[in-house]
Amino acid sequence: MKNCNICDGQVVEHARARVRDKYDAVFLRCLNCGFIFIPDPCWLAEAYAEPINRSDTGYVRRNLWARDRMDVCIETNLNPNGVFLDYAAGYGLFVRLMRDIGYDFRWSDLYCQNLFAQGFEVSEPLAGPFEAVTAFEVFEHLVNPVAEAKKLLAITDCLIFSTKLVPDPAPQPQDWWYYGLEHGQHIAFYSRKSLEVLAAQFGCHVVTDDNDLHTGLHVFSRKKVSPKFFPRLRLWQRAWRKLKNRNKRAPLPG
Question: How far is CA 181 from CA 32, 117, 170, in A?
């Protein structure tokens, strides 16, 4: 049995489940950091034939939420005049939304067509530096989280991403929707400790908020950041209203 994909610790079988109604999957759990993953998921090419899976009914709503939340985070923690990258950016809707409110966001995705942010692509191999890299709903898809974090933290000192953390105790596949058995694209599930271990490998501080309304938010930063990097729901809504009333920066072209 292989070791943990994050800390190389000993793993045990956590569960077995049917994925996409036809593949038998084994879920392994690390005894050290609590990371849960599916080794060698053979169905990924099939699962990504449609990059945005059909069961994803909240796609536009979540992009609007991400725009509003990142507007507050950038204004309160980062340089608003910097250049930002949205990694695994899908159709480019989030990039377009951020550019529409005046932030210089760029697009990168190896598997999806850029529909909304054409002309602002960043090609592989990625080259920075970027003020921050965002990666919404990406980390649960990663076969090799360490390699992917290394790639992104080579071009920024601030990585902002979303993924739900595994509840304690870790649920069985039939008891937690986030395993995504119907589409098979989710293969990596993180505990808070697994994120801390991953961040430490790159000299990063961690701030995490898994109590968010839509999905857990996390930041890896080489600079120490406030524990309030992600304001609580009521506070960020208040801050967002305040930001809406300020003189907004002009939309960027494109």
Answer: 25, 31, 16
- Asked if residue 4 belongs to a domain, the reply is no
**Per the confidence metrics, is the pTM higher than 0.85?**
yes
Judge whether 30 lies within some domain.
no
Residue 38 lies in a domain: no
Return the H-helix or E-strand segment holding 197.
helix 192-200
Three-state SS string over 59-117 comes to: HHHHHHHHHHHHHHHHHHHCCCCCEEEEECCCCCHHHHHHHHCCCEEEEECCCCCCCCC
Give, in order, the Cα–Cα distances in Å from 45 to each of 17, 48, 51, 119, 156: 19, 5, 10, 28, 29
pLDDT tens across 40-59, in order? 999 999 998 876 656 566 78
Mean pLDDT of the chain: 90
Question: Is there a contact between 29 and 12 (Cβ–Cβ < 8 Å)?
Answer: yes
> Running DSSP on this structure, what letter comes out for residue 4?
-
What confidence score (pLDDT) does residue 168 get?
92
Distance from C-alpha of 240 to C-alpha of 142, rounded to nearest angstrom: 32
What's the CATH code of the domain at 139? 3.40.50.150
For 182-203, how does the pLDDT look when each residue is reduced to its tens digit (9 = 90+)? 999 999 999 999 999 999 999 9
Q: What is the DSSP string of 122-190?
A: -PSSP---BSEEEEET-GGG-S-HHHHHHHHHTSBSEEEEE-PBPPSSPPPGGG-GGG-TTT----EEB
Which H helix or E strand runs over 235?
helix 233-244
CB 208 within 8 A of CB 183: no
CA dist 195 and 193 (Å) reads 5
